[in-house]
């Protein structure tokens, strides 16, 4: 059975530290209007060394799947407000649309 932890966000660009599992990461969330990119996420280690940059916050997939080789111990999942497949808009990130860290219980 999966365990869900909501990463607390609000609809503003932000940089913060968060512990996911037993690992502390620095996350940067930015809104990129150019080309309709929307919200994107950068992940760094606790010392600020970049791990992954420019992950679009889209729904319907594990945002970290293609980075399994980096050893993330869970998945990142975005779910929309009224419809789970609605991607976050500028105004509703963390309000209606949410980002979850998902792990499997053992």
Can you characterise this structure?
It is a single chain. The protein is an all-beta fold. It has one domain. It contains no helices and seven strands. It has strands at 2-7, 14-20, 23-32, 38-45, 50-56, 75-79, 98-104. The strands form two sheets. A four-stranded antiparallel beta sheet has the order 2-3-4-5, with no helix packed on it. A three-stranded antiparallel beta sheet has the order 1-7-6, with no helix packed on it. It is globular. The model has no long low-confidence stretch (mean pLDDT 92).
Q: Structural class from helices and strands?
A: mainly beta
Instruction: Please tally the β strands and state the result.
Output: 7
Return the average pLDDT rounded to an integer: 92
| SS field, number of helical segments | 0
Rounded Rg: 13 Å
Main sheet specs:
4 strands, antiparallel
Give the percentage of residues in beta strands. over 45%
Catalogue the unreliable spans. none
Distance between the termini: 8 Å
What strand order characterises the main sheet? 2-3-4-5
What count of structural domains?
1
- Fraction of residues in helices? under 10%
Summarize the structure.
The chain contains no helices and seven strands. With 106 residues, it is mostly beta strands.
């Amino acid at each position: 059975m999966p365990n869900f932890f909501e990463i607390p966000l609000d609809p503003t660009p932000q940089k913060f530290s968060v512990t996911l599992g037993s690992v502390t990461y620095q996350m940067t969330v930015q809104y990129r209007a150019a080309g309709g990119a929307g919200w994107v996420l950068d992940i760094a280690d606790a010392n600020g060394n970049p791990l992954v940059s420019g992950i679009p916050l889209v729904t319907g997939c594990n945002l970290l799947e293609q980075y399994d080789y980096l050893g993330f111990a869970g998945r990142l999942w975005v779910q929309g407000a009224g419809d789970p497949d609605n991607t976050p808009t500028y105004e509703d990130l963390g309000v209606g649309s949410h980002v979850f860290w998902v792990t499997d219980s053992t």
